[in-house]
Design brief:
The complex is a heterodimer. Helices cover about 70% and strands about 0% of the residues of chain A. Chain A is an all-alpha fold. Chain A is globular and about 65 Å long. The longest helix of chain B has about 130 residues. By secondary structure, chain B is mostly helical. Helix content of chain B is about 90%, strand content about 0%. Classes of the chains: A mainly alpha, B mainly alpha. The interface between A and B is large, with 55 and 32 residues. Strand 1 of chain A pairs parallel with strand 1 of chain B, so a sheet runs across the interface.
Amino acid sequence: MASEIVEGAAHHAPTPTEYIVHHLTHLSSGHQKGVVDFSVINVDTLFWSVTVGIIACLLMWLAARRATSGVPGRLQAFVEMVVEMVDDQSKAIIHGDRSYIAPLALTVFLWVVLMNAMDFLPVDLFATLFRWVGLESAIPYFRVVPTADLNGPLGMSLGVLAVVLYYNVKIKGVGGWIHELFTAPFGPWLAPFNLLLNLIEFIARTVSLGMRLWGNMYAGELLFLLIALLGSLATAFGFFGHVLAGTVWAIFHILIVVLQAFIFMMLTLVYIGQAHESH
Amino acid sequence: MNLNATLFAQMVVFFILSWFTMKFIWPPLMKALDDRAAKVADGLAAADRGRAEMAAAAKNAQVELAIARDEGQKRIAEAERRAQTIIEDAKRTATEEANRIIVSARGEADQMADRMRAELREQIAGIAIAGAEQILKREINPAVHADLLEQLKHEL
């Protein structure tokens, strides 16, 4: 968020609207037709979520590979701290086999933290870099925060939904789960309403889980863009406003980044935990 | 907010990453944590054991010390008693010896006195006889009056 708008300066300075729209456009494989178009894929989101996921796994793997029961090093101690936090939470929420769920929660937490943390990179960093190396026509758009793309969080919450459905069937059996779908919470006489309510619950959970994370990160990114626009006024007010607001918002954003990741992890655990309990 | 195939790609990545964590990261870390917890528990138990052992050893040493002190006390008393006896013995022996010496000296003195007395008596008798001879020069015949003289000597 620290850099100025420079792109297009050779031709004409972009209007604030053009600047914002440019920064909110994905590098995608094709032109999106309509709100939902599954023939298109967002390359930037995918690239960064995979890259950051690999970094998270590599970091944990480095600690896990050299993990000893003796005195831990700093990296090991840090990873152990996170692992223990996740393990404690999952222990409190899930009663049963946690051999997949706890690692899942750990992955979700660290992955989301790192994806959210991409927001700390200056908003114009990559556009400027690409112009310097002459790639601006090959990569005209590049969004770096995968969680600020609705596809990212919603894809993850669909993954959580899949896990929840799997554990519902695993714990209660197919018959038991279908029985619960029709009888809980109002009893067998209101079966259609029960089914409707349960379906709505599953959909609402999934959508809200994804949308909550996406909304927070999208708003955060948008605010960084607006602060960068303030800096582009090229006045003393704009400069100091940019520095002050950018600093304040970046510091506050540290909290949001970790908090949203923690909320996402906790809700994942809670939803999977509910799949373990009968109504 | 456009939905597209990224959604499914992200879902696949989600499962791949969680599978990787489950397979390669979680087990060794949990093992290390559990091992360390066990180690710490062992260490604490060992420390407790050591502390108990130390207390027992201190108590033992106290007992040994008391025994040794008693023993020493006894030895000293014994030695004192023995010294006392030795002194008593020596005293007694010395007294006896002294008595014996005194007795023998007295006897010797008595003997000497007796002898002196006998000598004196003879001398006195001699002197007396000589005196009497002087006086009675002619009248007394020592041969005739020998019995008388002898009797006189005894009476002296």
